[in-house]
Amino acid sequence: MNTASLKVEKLQHPIKVRTLQVKRVTQLSPSMRRITLTGGDLAGFLSASFDDHVKLMVPDVLATKPNVPVVGPTGLIFAQDQPKPAMRDYTPRRYDPAASELDIDFVLHHAGPATEWAKYAEPGHFVGIAGPRGSFLVPTAYDWHLLIGDETAIPAIGRRLEELPAAAKAIVIIKTETDAGRLEFSSRCQLDIQWVSETDSTGAAMGAFESAMRNMTLPSGEGYAWAAGEYSEIKAVRQYLVEGLGLDKDRIRAASYWRKAAASTHERFE
Ligand SMILES: Cc1cc2nc3c(=O)[nH]c(=O)nc-3n(C[C@H](O)[C@H](O)[C@H](O)COP(=O)(O)OP(=O)(O)OC[C@H]3O[C@@H](n4cnc5c(N)ncnc54)[C@H](O)[C@@H]3O)c2cc1C
Q: Which of 16, 82, 151, 188 is 20 to 30 A removed from 180 (C-alpha atoms)?
């Protein structure tokens, strides 16, 4: 294989803030709600990678417009006299420019402004998004792709599986809180998926992820590992990939998508 075709690439995009409206709401599982957004502001939206995120801005009061910032020379500028909206990171699950639709899939967990907004969102409700401001492009040309995550990573993993070619092998490990959180994916690639649940956990930092990783067999050839989910779990997953399996750090992208007992966190493990 030509290793030049395996080089990851980083793109920067000019930041743009958009106010969108809910077009449709689809309950994908008891714990996951898809909100389809639309609006004139969506024109020109660009999301180059499954790993992208937008900054979602939710209004304080449902059905009102959030006080979105304007883009200044050094970043986002919020009006001083208005409450700043709660901002959280979400994956653009699907963008259809012809239909002017952007899907975002929300895990409905116990509390938090984004979850509350998604729980009660109805057609016509407003939300703001900023970004994506950058994209991390992992070539699809790898022989195998290891994708590991909890429910917050399902949108990114689902999007990745849809774009992988038939020749690719995907080894996927997803942890859901209950079996009802498992979703169907559509993919042309050769898919080996292990669903694990919280209840499999031994209580150790990694628990269910570790036993699943011990059960998997990585194919031969060039591969890339991507992982996202709760901070301490993904930190431990990455440690196992590096120390237990000997994967090259340059072939791993691991990110914390949320952290127990902390609001709005995002960290990447290097
Ligand atoms: C790059 C990136 C992409 C992401 N993509 C998605 C996505 O597509 N869909 C998605 O649902 N999430 C996604 N997330 C995760 C999401 O941003 C966080 O879960 C966020 O904290 C949710 O905001 P909130 O307002 O609901 O809760 P917060 O106000 O942030 O947190 C409130 C409380 O809930 C806890 N909490 C937060 N998230 C969870 C969770 N998932 N399960 C259990 N407890 C939780 C926190 O520890 C805190 O105690 C992504 C995160 C990142 C960094």
A: 188
Verify whether ligand 1 is closer than 6 Å to residue 133 (CB atom): no
Of all protein residues, the one whose alpha carbon is nearest to atom 24 of ligand 1 is 112
State in words which class domain 138-269 has.
alpha beta
55 lines ligand 1 (CB under 6 A): no
Alpha carbon nearest to ligand 1 atom 1, residue: 53
Q: In the chain, where are the structural domains located? A: 10-134, 138-269
3-class state of residue 92 by DSSP = coil
Is pLDDT at 203 greater than 80 in this prediction?
no
Per residue in 90-146, pLDDT (tens digit) is 999 999 999 999 999 999 999 999 999 999 999 999 999 999 999 999 999 999 999
Using the mean position of ligand 1's atoms as its centre, give its distance from the Cα of residue 81 in Å.
28
pLDDT for 219-236, tens place per residue? 999 999 999 999 999 999
pLDDT tens-digit map of 113-128: 999 999 999 999 999 9
Gap between the Cα atoms of 48 and 14, Å rounded: 13
| DSSP letter string, 125-143 | -EEEEE---EEEE--TTSS
Q: What is the CATH T-level fold of the domain 10-134, as seen in this structure? A: Elongation Factor Tu (Ef-tu); domain 3 (2.40.30)
Q: How many angstroms does the Cα of residue 222 sit away from the middle of ligand 1?
A: 32
Distance 116 CA to ligand 1 centre (A): 11
80 CA from centroid of ligand 1 (Å): 27
Residue 136 neighbours by CB under 8 Å, 6+ apart: 8, 9, 10, 49, 51, 52, 253
Q: How far, in whole angstroms, is CA 119 from its chain's centroid?
A: 18
